[in-house]
Design goal:
By secondary structure, the protein is mainly alpha-helical. It is about 45% helix and about 10% strand. The radius of gyration is 31 Å and the shape is elongated.
Length: about 325
């Protein structure tokens, strides 16, 4: 009996040793039949058995049973992490097991959001990276709990005005929300104390953001921002319409050129040629200079301004002065 047990144990040990030598020689040096990559999705809580089937179905390995057998000897193969992997057919088991145990490689991308960009510009930048963004992704209600300054806005309002412009490094697999959160964090940092100070010029932080978004689109330089903000404040105090081309362009999506009579009759509440006061929401995402200018507009007696084709800004106190500036700037 003792001899039989010893013989059985010897046979099992020999089989195990044979397996340990067989797998590296037979499977760890598989030829590479294809150099193209294949995306393989490893689901949450997948075990080595499921992974073997997925790899076989994707054409990464030839024999699912052989990978399952290898997993008995390599603990890394028994600890796959969920995610999407770019794998090549013919990869050896050791490398596959290590890759799947470490998790998918995360691509980090750089996104530059310029001052005055609108949500549609950010959306286009994300789409160029292959990220699909739905209109609802920009709704403020998705971020109410994290950012109390958004909670005063209607739920279906967008993040327009609050996505602070800067250069951001973000993991691609976390877009778009990771970008939005970085921008909102930066906005919160840059506007710290604005809500208390806003009472000195405009009533709320939201109104400061609206005015800043207009200034950002109308101004040609940070130096002009406070003067232009002051002009808009002067016009509102006197009961004059803002008559900002930028607010109307926000609706028509047409930049440059003169406004037509059809444009000026546009019924949108963003048409500041037709309606008094500020539009109902921001028209762009302003930078720090424009936000500061809206909070602390320059005190001047100007009511008009325009910029020539070279970007030089002309300011005027009266309609007559404004007409002279127009003739000087455009030869009219």
């Amino acid at each position: 009996m003792r001899f039989i047990f010893f013989a059985f144990g010897s046979t099992l040990m020999a089989a195990t040793l044979a397996t340990m030598f067989f797998i590296p020689s037979a499977f760890l040096r598989m030829p590479l039949p294809d150099t193209s990559t294949v995306q393989v999705e490893i689901p949450l809580d997948a075990d080595a058995e499921q992974v073997a089937t997925l790899l076989k179905d994707a054409g990464i390995i030839r024999n699912a049973d052989a990978y399952r057998l290898y997993a008995l000897l390599d603990s890394a193969a028994r600890r796959p992490k969920p995610g999407t992997y770019d794998l090549k057919p013919g990869m050896n088991y050791r490398r596959l097991a290590r890759m799947l145990s470490l998790g998918p490689a995360r691509e980090e991308v750089t996104i530059r959001v310029f001052e005055g960009w609108r949500i549609r510009d950010i959306q286009k930048a994300l789409e160029r990276l292959g990220i699909e963004v739905a209109p609802s992704d920009f709704y403020v209600e998705r971020f109410f709990e994290e950012y109390p300054f958004l909670a005063v806005l209607p739920p279906t309002s967008t993040l327009e005005g609050y996505l602070f412009p800067d250069t951001y490094r973000v993991f691609k697999d976390q877009l778009p929300d990771a970008l939005f959160r970085k921008q909102l964090d930066e906005f919160q940092l840059k506007t710290s104390g604005f809500e208390e100070a806003a009472a000195t010029s405009l009533r709320t932080l939201h109104e400061v953001v609206i005015l800043a978004s207009i200034v950002e689109r109308e101004s040609g330089s940070d130096r002009d921002d406070p003067i232009i903000a002051g002009i808009f404040m002067n016009r509102m105090k006197r009961g004059m319409k803002l008559q900002s081309d930028a607010t109307l362009n926000y609706v028509t999506s047409v930049e440059g050129g003169r406004m037509t009579y059809t444009d000026l009759a546009n019924p949108s509440p963003y048409n500041s040629y037709k309606y008094d006061g500020l539009p109902p929401g921001p028209i762009s995402n302003p930078g720090k200079a424009a936000l500061d200018a809206a909070l602390h507009p320059a005190e001047t007696d100007y009511f008009f301004f325009l910029a020539d084709r070279a970007g030089r800004t002309y300011f005027a106190r009266t309609g007559a002065e404004h007409a002279i500036n127009r003739a000087r700037a455009f030869g009219e």
